[in-house]
Amino acid sequence: MRKLFSSKGKRTKKAKENKGFRRYILHICIIAVFLFFVAYGAWTLLTDYQEDVNAQREYEQLREIFMDSSEPDPPITPLPEDLNDYEELEIDEDEPEETEHIAMEELARINQDLIGWISIKNHVEYPVVRGRDNDRYIYTTFSGERNSAGAIFMDYRNRNGFNDHITILYGHRARNGTMFSPLINYINRAFLQDNPIITITMRDGEDLTYRVFAARQTDTWDSIYDMGFTDSARAAGTFPNAPADASRFLLLSTCAAGDDRDKRIIVYAALDLANG
Questions:
Q1: What is the domain partition of the chain in residue ranges?
Q2: Contact 154, 130 (CB under 8 A)
Q3: Is 82 helix (H, G, I), strand (E, B) or coil?
Q4: Cβ partners under 8 Å of residue 158, min gap 6
Q5: Rounded distance, CA 68 to CA 80, Å?
Q6: What's the CA gap between 150 and 170, in Å, rounded?
Q7: Closest CA to 74 of 93, 87, 59
Q8: One digit per residue, pLDDT tens: the chain, 276 residues?
Q9: Helices 2-70 & 99-110, crossing angle to 10 degrees?
Q10: Phi and psi at residue 213, in whole multiples of 5°?
């Protein structure tokens, strides 16, 4: 009897030790999993931050190419050897060379998919590309780098570029407020009234001026994304507040705020017939 009791006590003690060891292992596993997710989260944040920095640096460099070539320094007229002849010096009043075309040629050497350049004063300054499909530039920058910032790109179905009656441009709502992030502000009527002009510079240097007339939130299933790009009559009758005399439209599309990945913001603009 005493022997059985002693054996049972040993078994109970051993069972308690095993249970305690299992709990110890479980705690270690929980801590390890926790640390893994913390490390993974930190690595993801660091990677996202680095991508934002790389994309911002790339587009700043491209902006310098476009801006520097578009705004050349005025020519310096040499003084004559005899300053007494200064009054008789003829000043060349010829128009300066079209430099925007030069800028676009330089950008095209970096990427032949270049279609143009989009400008919304103080908010958006980017090259525009068109790929073989609408997936090409979602996570690829203008220079061809893999990056979640992607590029501003034209719908691949716009075969005639900005000459189509309806042109759609896509861009990300980037985490750091770049790319097409400012478009969400067009939902605010005051912002729309203060920022109505979108300028598109074509590859040949020609400028097209579009005037924003509406903006709204929608989703990826909106029929607007499937509208024929040559159907200007249908567009004028369908787009909210479209000018009656408009025949060419520009639509800018980006993600809306929030966690719903299917929500979109669309900005509607019409070619300014007086300036475009």
A1: 63-73+82-271
A2: yes
A3: coil
A4: 130, 164, 167, 168, 229
A5: 30
A6: 10
A7: 93
A8: 455 445 556 566 666 566 667 777 777 878 877 776 666 566 555 566 677 888 989 999 999 999 876 554 444 445 445 545 444 444 444 443 466 778 899 999 999 999 999 999 999 999 999 999 999 999 999 999 999 999 999 999 998 889 999 999 999 998 889 999 999 999 999 999 999 999 999 999 899 999 999 999 999 999 889 887 877 777 877 888 889 888 899 999 999 987 788 999 999 999 987 765
A9: 150
A10: -125, -10
Q: How many C-beta neighbours within 10 Å does residue 189 have?
A: 10
Query: Tokens 């004028």 correspond to what residue?
Result: 236
**Buried-exposed string 127-141: b where 16+ CB fall within 10 A, e elsewhere:** bbbbbeebebbeebb
Count CB-CB contacts under 10 A for residue 171. 25
Amino acid identity for residue 201 in this structure: T
**Number of residues written out for the chain:** 276
Q: Which amino acid is at 167?
A: T
Superfamily of structural domain 63-73+82-271: Sortase (2.40.260.10)
Locate 107 and state its tokens. 């950008």
> What token pair was written down for 60?
């700043």
Q: Where are the beta strands (DSSP E) in the chain?
A: 114-120, 124-129, 152-154, 166-170, 197-202, 207-219, 249-255, 263-271
User: Which whole-number Å values give the CA distances from 270 to 188, 211, 213, 252, in the listed order?
Assistant: 19, 5, 7, 11
Structure-block tokens of residue 17: 């030790």
**Separation of alpha carbons 249 and 272, rounded Å:** 10
Model pLDDT for residues 14-29, shown as the tens digit of each residue = 665 666 677 777 778 7
| Alpha-carbon gap, residue 85 to 13, rounded angstroms | 114
End-to-end CA separation in angstroms for the chain: 106
Q: What are 231's two structure tokens?
A: 């159907």
**For residue 9, how far is the Cα from the chain centroid?**
71
- In the three-class reduction of DSSP (H, G, I as helix; E, B as strand; rest coil), residue 181 is classed as helix
